[in-house]
Amino acid sequence: MLPFSQNSHYKLRFLVLVLWVSHLVDSKSGFELDESLTYLWPLPSEFTSGNQTLTVDPTLSFSALGKGGNSKILIEGFERYKKIIFKHVSGISLFDKSRGIRSVYDISELRFIVNSDSEELQLGVDESYTLFVAKKDGKSIVGEATIEANTVYGALRGLETFSQLCAFDYETKSVQIYKAPWYIKDKPRFAFRGLMLDTSRHYLPIDVIKQIIESMSYAKLNVLHWHIIDEESFPLEVPSYPKLWNAAYTKWERYTIEDASEIVSFAKMRGIHIMAEVDVPGHAESWGAGYPDLWPSSTCREPLDVSKSFTFDLISGILSEMRKIFPFELFHLGGDEVHTDCWTSTPHIKQWLNDRNMTAKDAYQYFVLKAQEIAISKNWTPVNWEETFNSFPSKLNPRTIVHNWLGPGVCPKAVAKGFRCIFSNQGAWYLDHLDVPWNEVYSAEPLEGINNVSEQNLVLGGEVCMWGETADTSDVQQTIWPRAAAAAERLWSKREAVSARNITLTILPRLHYFRCLLNRRGVQAAPVTNKYARQPPIGAGSCYEQ
Fold it and tell me: For residues 499 and 443, what is the distance between their CA atoms, to the nearest angstrom?
């Protein structure tokens, strides 16, 4: 018989072991999907589902009809998604006939019907699609999955939805589609569904930008607003003014024109626009590193010198170079946070203002309108931050798109005056505000306060903004996701569908699921319910409950 102390020691160890095993059993069996919810993100406009489970052939074949069926965009998209869907499958049947499991797959072909052969990607391009997934009746053993769309970009959106229907089953080691048959008829609520990326405060390598664009396509976001340059750095090559990128942080943190073109091409293959921004006249101190004449003086460096024709010649040169790269019809001219003290305190600019009987506010208006004229002359539609509208709404070019950011209530005022508007209320949709929880991002409504239908139609949509002061390659994806997905569903899905009373019960489980989908696809999306965005998990647990 063991001494008392040693016996007690073994009893205690046994008790701890029992409790530990009990904990493991409980923790592993505690999470179940709510079958009443639909785990597609963003939620489609219209859909019906059933109660069948279908198997998908790992050698899934592609077929296409219609004028756009042979599009390179579509064919490459299919191959891209096939790798995602069958990540765990070798491409040959792993079914064991001796166990009585079917060796014939329910879905062996994905058929596309694309009605237009146009690949032009401009604002408002038709992104609607229908998706039908069902087991064929009768004698045929070939299952049916069909995506029909008017454009190749609608077909891409349908392909993303199809990929989310497909789930890998670890028991049979096969890809399955649950709750079939599916009939989905889908289209976006807003034409402009954006993410702003700031590469001035921190340089982001080309591959990182591509990863972000790829992840945007998973949430059906369709505009990357590229805030390329700012007062801190000027990383972009401008061949006609080669000293501008002297203001890059280092000679290795730069974008060549070929880099920029590659990003535009990469994005187009995923149905994503690139809207470039050149912010003037403020936020431009970096320009003077290569061309000091752009500064009001060597000690007072912004806004850009409004008195010199060289300033506007250079802006025109930049925009001419960028027009060769960026085909999207919208171009962002900034215009925010313009502090005019350097204009009124620098003798030659002060004299220029006096000669024209202009105040500093007049000069701000003059600069913005002249920049707009330059952009319009190059067949661009100007986008400006809301300060321009707040300061001189009656003077803005009527084609101007007002970009809200300071707070709510600006889009209602802008559309009431006939301007189009983009919603980015910083209180909800600035991703660098780490204390804004997912539910506040989700609940922000671009049409709040706008009841007139014709005025509602002037709201193009919205974008979440990833300002880069505290975000670089090490943490940018965790800061973007999953909160950007909350805005993405708000911008894509019907307003009625995203206005549920208890979003903790109806939306949160679906957002958890989508966050885990992003993780499975290699996107470093942070836990959904952290007190501060991009924080790591606070302890052990399932992805689906964090």
Answer: 8
Q: Which two tokens stand for residue 269?
A: 């293959």
Beta-carbon contacts of 188 under 8 Å, excluding residues fewer than 6 positions away, are 127, 128, 157, 220, 222, 491, 492
pLDDT of the residue at 93: 54
Which two three-digit tokens encode residue 423?
């919603």
104 and 222, same structural domain? no
- The 10 Å Cβ neighbour count of residue 506 is 15
Q: How far apart are CA 282 and CA 302, in angstroms?
A: 6
Does the pLDDT value for residue 99 go beyond 60?
no
Peptide bond into 3 cis (omega under 30): no
**Tally of CB atoms within 10 A around 46:** 12
How many angstroms separate the Cα of 200 from the Cα of each of 261, 263, 305, 456? 18, 16, 21, 33
Q: How many domains does the chain have?
A: 2
17 or 330: whose pLDDT is higher? Answer: 330
Q: Does residue 337 have an active-site annotation? A: yes
Same domain, 423 and 480: yes
Residue % of the chain over a pLDDT of 90: 86
In the set 76, 337, 373, 469, the catalytic residue is: 337
The model's confidence at residue 11, banded by pLDDT at 50, 70 and 90, is very low
Do residues 115 and 256 both lie within one domain? Answer: no
Residues pairing with 175 in the sheet? 56, 168
- Which of 59-63, 96-100, 232-236, 508-512 has the weakest average pLDDT? 96-100
The first and second tokens of residue 16, run together, are 């701890």
DSSP annotation of 255 reads B
Omega of the bond prior to 181 within 30 degrees of 0, cis?
yes
> Which alpha helices (H) appear in 30-112, and where do they start and end?
72-85
How far, in Å, CA of 312 to CA of 314, rounded? 5
Query: Could you tell me if 239 and 337 lie in one domain?
Result: yes
Cα angle 379, 380, 382 (rounded to 5 degrees) comes to: 145
Length of the chain equals 546
Q: For the chain, what is the total number of helices (H) and then of strands (E)?
A: 18, 16
Residues 54 and 201 in one domain: no
d(CA 174, CA 167): 8
**Contact indicator for 315, 280 with CB cutoff of 8 Å:** yes
* 526 lies in some domain: no
Per the structure, the complete domain to which residue 136 belongs is given by 46-186
Report DSSP state, residue 88: T
What one-character DSSP code corresponds to residue 501? S
Model confidence at 56: pLDDT above 50: yes
Do residue 406 and residue 493 come from a single domain? yes
Using the 3D structure, point to which of 137, 152, 186 is the last residue of a domain. Answer: 186
Q: Which residues contact 2 (CB under 8 A, 6 or more apart)?
A: 10
Residues 182 and 200 in one domain: no
